[in-house]
Request: fold
Amino acid sequence: MKKLKNWDNQTWLSSKNYINQFNKFLNKRVKFNKNTKILDIGCGRANIISNLEKKYKFKEKPIGLDIIENKGIKKNIIFKKIDGYNYLKRKNEKYDLILLKQTIHFFSPSTLKALLDIAKKRLKIEGKILIFSLKTTNNKIPCFKKMKQKLDSSLKRDEKLFKIIKKKLKRTNESYFHFDVRISKQKYLKMVKSRYISCLLDLKNNEILAGISELKSKYKYQIKFTDTLKCISYRK
Ligand SMILES: C[S@@+](CC[C@H](N)C(=O)[O-])C[C@H]1O[C@@H](n2cnc3c(N)ncnc32)[C@H](O)[C@@H]1O
Reply:
């Protein structure tokens, strides 16, 4: 599989508005203060924890882990290029929040199980694990036919991963984060061309180009939809 490099590369997922709304959502579930210690597994360019750090000036900087070191990773956090499971296994530190946002689908079921087992042990008293993933039914991400097939099969797999998560974590709460996306067709087509989402990574170049023509005729100038994430929350 190709590497995911453009997910948060000047897209709505890295916009101020999105990050602010997302962090408001987080703040309702984790009462942030100067002492909050955060680990973000699969942090990408670390926009989320960087924004939190700016706001709360934590005593210990948030740690972001990713297997890819993209250009433009935020500098006010501690970034480590490492697999999330290996990091948790090696480092016996405890956190108030372990965040996994739109990352679980990169793990095999067995690694996810092992990761959750260790993550539970790495929580402080009343610490939380928050897992965010695309909503699996009636998902609104704009797709061309082939992209939709790939997305749907990935979402089916996610449902299996949700079952694993619930079994492992037992006492969980579920909620949804909604973000209204307004994006020009031109910008969205650029995102598709840059394979911004993992269901595009394995498509051939000619399939991407055909998909772009399909989207060109499907949408007018503006694309509007709601990006919805399921949030699974576990508290120690
Ligand atoms: C869809 S992006 C989400 C980025 C960020 N959490 C956000 O929502 O903006 C998923 C990220 O997880 C990373 N990733 C995949 N497998 C990983 C692993 N085993 N350990 C750490 N990060 C991983 C990918 O490289 C990618 O940057």
